[in-house]
Each structure stands twice: as C-alpha cells, then as structure tokens.
Amino acid sequence: MIAVATGGPRIQEIDPEYRQRRINIQQGLAERGLQDPNPHTDLWRWYGTWSGGAYPSYSSRRVYISELYDPLVDRIRQGRAKVGSVFFEEPTGWAKVDRGMDKVRERLDTASTEEEFQTVGLLCREVLISLAQEVYCRERHKSLDSTTPSTTDAKRMLEAYIAVELQGGPQDESRKHARAALALAKALQHRRTATFRDGALCAEATAAVVNTIAIVSGRRDPK
User: Fold this and answer.
1) pLDDT, tens digit, for every residue of 63-101?
2) In a domain, 223, yes or no
3) 3-class secondary-structure state, position 38
4) Contacts of residue 192, Cβ cutoff 8 Å, sequence gap at least 6
5) Are residues 141 and 161 in contact, defined by beta-carbon separation less than 8 angstroms?
6) To bridge 5 with a disulfide, which of 44, 61, 114, 179 should be the other Cys (CB 3.0-4.6 Å)?
7) Does residue 41 form part of some domain?
8) d(CA 1, CA 5)
9) What average pLDDT does the structure give for the chain?
10) What is the mean pLDDT of residues 31-56?
11) Cβ neighbours of 179 (radius 10 Å)
12) 103-110: long-range contacts at Cβ-Cβ below 8 A with a sequence spacing of 24 or more?
C-alpha cells in the first residue's frame, strides 16, 4: 500500500498479489480472534482514497498506513491473540462455567498436538454441561422430543431452554443464532483430526452459547 502510493510499482502489476495477501492475512487474524483493520479490498480502492485528496503527500499516506496497522501489531506483539476476543471480560457468575471457559482458553493457547486440540473440544463439552445444569428447569423447559434429558445431556437441556426463553417471532433470529452456535460446538467437540482451527472454532462457538444464554438469563444486564 505504501509502495504504490509513494511512487512505487504500478497498481495493475501488484494488485493480484495484494488481494491474495489480504485473504491470507484475514484468515490468519480470524484464527486468532482478531479483525483486519484494513478497509481497502484492493489497491484501486486505496488509490481512490488517496487520489481524492484525503492524503495529498507521501508522508501523510505513510502515517495513515502506520495508524491503520500499529494498534494491531502492538496487540499481536503483546500476545493478545487467539480466542481472547470471543469472551466477555466479566465472568457470568456461574462459577463452573467461568472456570471451564478459563480452562478452554488456557488449553487453546498452549495446545500444539492433535490430542491437545481434541482436549479443547472435551473441555467445551464440560462447559456446556455446566451451563445447561445452571439454567435448565425440568418443569419449565420441556424437551423438544419429549425425552427427559439426563443431567449431562447438554444438547437437549439447552435446546429446551432456548425454545422457551427465546420463543416468539421477534426472537426468531436470536433463537436461530443460539441453536446454530450450539450445533457447531457439539459437532466440533468430536473431531477426530483436531487442528488449531477446529479448537478455535469450537471455543468460539461454545463462548457464543455461553454468552447468549448469559444475556437471555439477565446475567449481562448493566448493573
């Protein structure tokens, strides 16, 4: 970006490489729970920004790029990567759930082998069981298939909770989101060939379920 904006190569010569790098960077950041701060999907869009007069000098264009990426670079250097962003800073108040999510984050931060990434899935399963046991009420939350869930059947308990607490047309999208996150978390827990991406996706999906249920239950309401 700096090169083409400061008298370097022509855009048409390096734009394909730039667009491929953007894809690689976005994927790498997504794996770490980070967002790409760059709004320019190709170099022609970047050209439109600076040629419109917003950054008239070479130095102003360099400063713009530095300010765009410096916060991200600093965050990566400080080690705040991977899945930290999928967690609310405040605990839910459900002790076992909060301890479980801490374990998930710690294991994902240190995992390097297939077996260790599979353990992330097992820890996520325990989190969902603890969450279900906190919110499920047999009298209020009737199982969708009329089967009484066991004390470890997180899927049936949470599906029943979601169906009751997020019922009605206005809650349709929230209900779909909660169910999709639950389904993804359950599916990823049992991957036999686990990688970082599998573990990170499972952790994010599990955190989404926890935070959705915490919001619905009032645990995230402003104090």
Assistant:
1) 888 888 888 777 766 654 344 444 455 788 899 999 999
2) no
3) coil
4) 118
5) yes
6) 61
7) yes
8) 6
9) 84
10) 86
11) 17
12) 104/203, 104/206, 104/207, 105/203, 107/199, 108/82, 108/83, 108/196, 108/199, 108/200, 108/203, 109/82
